[in-house]
Amino acid sequence: MSEKRNYTSSTGKKAGKDIIQGRFFSLDFFKRNAVYIIALVIMALAYIANKFVCQSSMEEVIKLKTELSNAQTDLVNSSARYNSMIRESEMTKLMQEKHIGLTAPMEPPFELPSN
After folding, report:
1. Left, alpha or beta for 59 (phi > 0: left; psi -120 to 50: alpha)?
2. 83 HSE (CA, 13 A, CB side)
3. Is the pTM of this model over 0.85?
């Protein structure tokens, strides 16, 4: 009579034994699957490189946004000073044309102490 074998259990035991003994990843395994292994390594390296480029770009964007914000603040401050100087010179010019006799004070105003 023919002997019936249970191949699933014997191959499962064989695979476990091969892994333990280090024969599962033999040179033959790498030769058969070289293309897949190389593709997997290239994909992993591309993922790492893409992540690095993304992080570098995000840092640059944050730095440029900060620089833009500072430049906008400087622009507003310069514009306010310019408008103030224009108003002051126009007032001085108007006082001289009307011969009012007023002049701009040389000292800044101060508060009198209250007792």
Report:
1. alpha
2. 6
3. no
